[in-house]
Amino acid sequence: MATMEVDVEQQQQRRRPIFTIDDDHSFDLDAYIAPYTGRTVIDRLIAIIIQCPSIAPHALSLAFQRLYRLRDPSLFNAVISAYESVLGTQEGKGLPPVADVVSVDMEWVEDVTKRNIAERTKLEVELKTYTNNMIKESIRMAHRDLGDFFRSTGEFGLALKHYTKSREFCSTSQHVLDMCMSVLELAVEQRNYAHIPSYVYKAEGALESLTIVVPQSSAMAIGTGFSSTTGGGGIGASVTGSVGGGSGQASQGGKPTDRDHMQTKLEFVLALSHLGTGAYDKAAIAFLRLGPPEQLRDWIGKLVAPSDIAIYGTLCALASLPRSFVKAQLVDNPTFATYIEQEPYVRELVQSYMASNFKMVLDILSRHSIRHNTDIHLSPHIPELTKLIRHVSLVLYFAPFETVRLERMAEALGWSVEEVEREVVGLIQNGRIVGRVDSRGKILVAKKTDHRAELFALAMKMASEMEKTNRKLLLRMRLQQADLVVKDPKMARREQDRGLEIALGDNLV
């Protein structure tokens, strides 16, 4: 399996667009970063430092405040390198040096490094001991603990190695599910979207096995009058403690079960995988199908915020889904409305789209472009999503008309006439708009369709095909009557043998 490490230095060296914060493009850094915890805070702040030099010192200060809550001293170098790369650009001129903004607590770095070395040694000794003693469950837990440790210290290749190694020592479906969820969290943190689907399918298989076992164990508990509380990692203990309890609550009080929480997590990472691979229609459908935010549990803040899901799902839906589907699955979706509440401008965006106010739609996208382009999962796809939404706006605007002036379209969309003409010509060439452009008069004319003539042509075509079929059938009937049909040699041989058998039988009688 390919390593899931991401070369941060190469990402920083790529030329990213630079954004300037002003009245038309506002961005509240403190409010944006507040919902996040853990390593994702640092990843997002690094992206902001690189792409928004005007607030890079504030982002650097926030990053250092959060770094002391983690246990990966190497992140200091990553943040400082990102800030110094900005200082060397034209946009970074005039920014204060690193020493004037923050200072590294070397005593804390040395202390954390020593504790990390001591804990790594302890965990590796435990793994070696359990391996020598051939204690399967203890070996699995040792690999799991080492995976968690290496993930927290930024050694993602080793973390993946130990997570996948623990699969060999899993004895229950719950163990397999836990391993898959750990790998999926690691894949999301590293934006390795290609590896997500395979582990989602493995986790769904393990989850399905748990739901099959739960009713049987529950029935046994009811029949005997008690349930197993043994903690040795057996099937009964594992299921009763994690999934069985949730199922009981759901059946009695209608509360979400642990299966619902796990299923929502799996649907989220699969949706994120579709977004990362550019399958925007699949991503939109998956995001709109998610359960409420509380079902994501500890992933809220650690991997994603509810506002992120609102933005991802809405932009993908507007760019790739039909308007009727957007109305049914997004506007009339009470569950997804809980995500949209976290970002009020998303609701305004959807309302403008449904009201055919496409100029407002594009204005909202431009106004919040910094929020979209600094998102670690969404930013690579913003140019394509914006282009698709622009195309959808043009197609929907022209749909009711037979002819429309390009000047009117330009006014409605807030573009120049030349830009509208260029976009319309491209859509005509791609088949999205059926019409032609009068370049001299600057008029877009829809191709007139005579539905009556089309129906008549279709009827004539079907009649011609039926006539040809009937002629072929009549010809075959006449050939058979004249005994001019060429028979299969094997079939003729079988008929001769059959006739011989009948003749011999008549002679014997």
Description:
It is a single chain. The protein is mainly alpha-helical and 509 residues long. The protein has helices spanning 8-13, 29-33, 39-51, 56-67, 74-87, 98-101, 106-133, 136-152, 156-165, 173-189, 196-224, 235-253, 258-276, 280-288, 299-302, 306-320, 323-331, 334-340, 344-354, 358-367, 369-373, 382-398, 406-413, 417-430, 451-481, 489-508; strands at 403-405, 435-438, 443-446. Strand 2 and strand 3 form a beta hairpin. Helix 7 runs antiparallel to helix 8 (136-152) and helix 16 crosses helix 18 (334-340).
Blueprint (SSEs and pairs):
Elements: H1 8-13, H2 29-33, H3 39-51, H4 56-67, H5 74-87, H6 98-101, H7 106-133, H8 136-152, H9 156-165, H10 173-189, H11 196-224, H12 235-253, H13 258-276, H14 280-288, H15 299-302, H16 306-320, H17 323-331, H18 334-340, H19 344-354, H20 358-367, H21 369-373, H22 382-398, E1 403-405, H23 406-413, H24 417-430, E2 435-438, E3 443-446, H25 451-481, H26 489-508
Antiparallel strand pairs: 1-3, 2-3
Number of helices: 26
- Overall 3D form: flat
**Helix and strand succession?**
HHHHHHHHHHHHHHHHHHHHHHEHHEEHH
Total number of strands: 3
Structural class computed from helices and strand pairing:
mainly alpha
Report the sheet with the most strands, covering strand number, pairing sense and barrel closure: 3 strands, antiparallel
Radius of gyration: 33 Å
Unreliable residue runs:
1-14, 214-254
Percent range for helical residues?
55-70%
Q: Percent of residues in beta strands?
A: under 5%
